[in-house]
Amino acid sequence: MRLGYIGLGNMGGALARRLVREHPLRVFDLRPEATARLTQAGAVPAQSAEALARESDLVMTCLPTSKEVREVLFGEGRVAEALEAGKIVADMTTGDPGETREMAARLRERGVTMVDAPVSGGPHGANAGTIAIMVGAPSEIYARLEPIFRTISPNVFHTGDVGTGHVMKLVNNVISAGVRAVTFEALAMGIKNGLSLEACTRVLQKGSARSATTELALPRLMTGDFGVTFTLALMLKDVRLATKLGNDSAAPMPLAGLVRELFQTAINKRGPDKDVLEFVKLFEENAGVRVAAG
Hints:
Oligomer: single chain
Strand order of the largest sheet: 3-2-1-4-5-6
CATH superfamily of the largest domain: NAD(P)-binding Rossmann-like Domain
Helix content: 40-55%
Structural class: alpha/beta
Number of strands: 9
CATH topology of the largest domain: Rossmann fold
Largest sheet: 6 strands, parallel
Strand content: 5-15%
């Protein structure tokens, strides 16, 4: 199966680098420097998304939102026009399940199958080969794609038909966002009442409150590392999608709604392009205490 990858940002680039270790891979990104990095790793650059699609049996995408996926497929990217019957599109974006199902239906009219395969674990997990891949696909298509995805990570899960991978990712990310919020809020309270960030970090990593936030975010707070790995805007987008899906399906999400508003407040104060770790500054301001180093 000939493989192509569109979208070589922090996450897409890391996933593509895992694939190119074991598979010939065509790649495309609107930023020439991103394509060049993958070319240096052994990938074959494509002149356009459309050209990549013509030479690929499986086209994978990893883009900021479903809007960009739609534009690549049906807009200026013209990928859909280049796809012949029998080809597959696997969207690894954290997308909108409803939009994904609509795009899949449009492609189905051309005899093309679209599946969703979002990931969780961050670029560090993608680089390490430990990331979770959640695949919404018909069973027979999943059976064909699973060996390919396992060259990225052994943690590949079939969640059901198309769209369910994105639903699973929204469940994951809204939980992650909520845990981050309550962790930072509690940290601010604890530090204001005599604890140190170092003590909190050591204890929380070994106790029942252990989470990705305590294991990954708190060590970064200790060094004052606010380098951008995942933006506040992207996290807010995921929480908004989750609460919208809850509203549309009559599944109340009042706690997630509060988390959504907290992230919006943080963006209003810090800016959308700041790293998600900047979320802690909202709770520092609320409590009148310094949590992060630096």
